[in-house]
Amino acid sequence: MIRNEKDIPAPSAIPTIRSPMRDEFFSAKTTAPVAAIAGFGMNADLVDKLHPRKVPASPAQVESELFPRWRNGPIGVINFLMNHDPSTSELRELDRQFHLHPFTHHTDMHKSGTQLIKSGDGCFLIDQDDRRLLDGLAGLWCVNVGYNCAAIVEAVHRQMRQLPYYPSFFNTTTEPPVRVAEFLAKKSPARLNRTIFSNSGSEANESALKIIRSYHHTRGQSGKYKILSRSFSYHGVTLAASSMTGLPICYEPFDLPLPGFIHVPGPHPYAVQSPLDPEAYGKWCLEETAKTIQREGADTIAAMFVEPIQGAGGVIPPPPGYLAELRDLLRKNNILFVADEVITAFGRLGHWFASNLWDLDPDIITLAKGITSGYLPLGATMVSDEISETIFSAGYFAHGYTYSAHPTSAAAALANLETIESLGLVERVRDDTGPYFQQKLHEFAAHPAVSEVRGHGLIGALEVIPRLGRSGLASEPTIGIRAAGLIREEGSIVRGIRTLIAMAPPLIISREEIDQLFSCVKRGLDRLWD
Ligand SMILES: Cc1ncc(COP(=O)(O)O)c(C=O)c1O
Q: Is residue 138 in some structural domain?
């Protein structure tokens, strides 16, 4: 027990106290070079290479890192070492008092207690009870290279030391965003060469909306301002992004959508209990979209936003041919086609972009999430040459965020993208783990609690039903959330959405880990009917 200054041990005698913050403080220095030396090869164990074990801090490091704090007074050192490992109950109480959570039912959460995640490594997380959970959702569809990737940690650390921040306003830039923009241009469809950065998927879509307005305005077509999007789509949470989102829970409580945002049917026959198969239903959706364009007038519609696979709305892959026909319909009517690839880009479908996979040739692509594997916030909006040249011709472009092209976020993105490339993760998903994941996912078609299976590459969903079958769903419209809770108890995190569970694990996942994920899913679903 430390009562006064004399009881504080000398720096070299300070015991190793496990505290997440202390680990974090030392990890960037102690782990990064190991990965750099190891190099990355496809046949070796990816996780060991990506996530070398932390080397305990040496006495010399303790001295060099801790001693400066010592000089600032003993209380600082004691706080540093001891006070950053508060108990779960204390954190839960503080969380209840002070933290307003996004996308959370607060009273339910306070009753059951907030879930705490303490650390992550590869595809696994450690929770408040020191349980090791396989993260079947890659955080929020984004931690593509898994947790504790030393290459990203090191790149961020280096950039922080060199230049943590400088804006890209007023004729200035820093190196990392230029390199990221170049990387994106090389991987994206041919017409998309320029990128404006932001901080999130919502902001990437906001930037797209402003660019679209500016484009039509500059061309003397300010009357083209309406925006089309689809039911079950998710495009983010700003006023405009929520207005595009086709999920009532996201717009109704906020008295949205704003005027000029129009929803057309998305190709999800299961959710609307249509008797049509996905292909026929997709055709009907296209006819409805064409009718909407005719009714509103093509000369009033600026653009349509489309997720190639609708993610948060329930993992809805496009029926064959649907996206190409939709693109042609829009082009015929001089309506810009925006691919919201916030989830689908960077290898999730076994291609750098879904737009490449399905030859979509969009006018704009919006990006976020997997661009940094979620390590730091970054959004990106890529535009066609025609759009960027129109923007140039208009003169001053008065749009951008203080943190647009943030150099440290961009350094994280560059290290992340180079890691995805050097590990061959895109090809690995395309040729190996993606098909294996889909095979295992589709085996659930035979499970009595599963009524539909959907997916592509490393993303998938299972629609689950109660014993009563589909007719029982009306009395249990959140059975997917209950199923996700059971699967978590079995050791894996999946996302419950309405009546389904969704999965999108890190792209580094191995076949054995896919087996582990699905055995948790199976045990959880078996218990659903108990
Ligand atoms: C397709 C899509 N677009 C946009 C967003 C919004 O991104 P953010 O939460 O970073 O604002 C999301 C988030 O899930 C998304 O899935």
A: no
What is the spatial distance between Cα 449 and Cα 526, in angstroms, rounded to a whole number? 8
**Is 146 part of a structural domain of the chain?**
no
- Ligand 1 pocket at CB < 6 A: 200-202, 205, 234-236, 307, 311-312, 340, 342-343, 368
The pTM of this model reads: 0.86
Residue 344: both structure tokens together: 């689908």
Paired tokens of 462: 């299972």
Chain centroid to CA 520: 23
The candidate with the shortest Cα–Cα distance to 87, out of 19, 133, 22, is 19
The residue segments making up the domain with residue 114 are: 5-133
From 117, 133, 149, the end of a domain falls on 133
Asked whether the predicted pLDDT for residue 83 surpasses 80, the reply is no
Ligand 1 atom nearest to CA at 344 = 1
Q: What number does the ligand 1 atom closest to the CA of 233 have? A: 1
Q: Is 317 in the same domain as 284?
A: yes
Nearest ligand 1 atom to the CA of 199 is 10
CA of 189 to the centre of ligand 1 (A): 21
Q: 205 CA to middle of ligand 1, Å?
A: 9
Q: Cα of 46 to ligand 1 centre, how many Å?
A: 28
pLDDT of residue 50: 60
Q: Which helix (H) or strand (E) holds 479?
A: helix 479-489
Distance from the alpha carbon of residue 307 to the mean position of ligand 1, in angstroms:
10
Question: In this structure, is residue 519 part of a structural domain?
Answer: yes
By CB atoms closer than 10 A (0-12, 13-18, 19+), residue 176 is buried
In a domain, 336, yes or no: yes
> Is the same domain home to 409 and 431?
no
Partners of 122 in the β-ladder = 147
pLDDT at 147 over 50: yes
Cα of 202 to ligand 1 centre, how many Å? 6
Q: Quick one: 397 and 437 in the same domain? A: no
Closest CA to 236 of 203, 197, 187, 266: 203
Here the CATH number for the domain that contains residue 430 is 3.90.1150.10
Task: Identify which of 137, 341, 349, 369 to mutate to test ligand 1's pocket (most ligand atoms within 8 A of the CB).
Answer: 369
User: Do 413 and 434 reside in the same domain of the chain?
Assistant: no
Strands 124-127 and 459-464: unpaired
For range 126-132, the mean pLDDT? 96
**β-pair partners for 441:** none
Mutate which of 206, 232, 233, 234 to test ligand 1's pocket (most atoms within 8 Å of Cβ)?
A: 234
pLDDT at 442 over 60: yes
pLDDT digits (tens, 9 = 90+) for 234-282: 999 999 999 999 999 999 999 999 999 999 999 999 999 999 999 999 9
* Cα 298 to Cα 221: distance, rounded to the nearest angstrom: 12
Cα angle at 343 between 414 and 289, to 5 degrees? 135
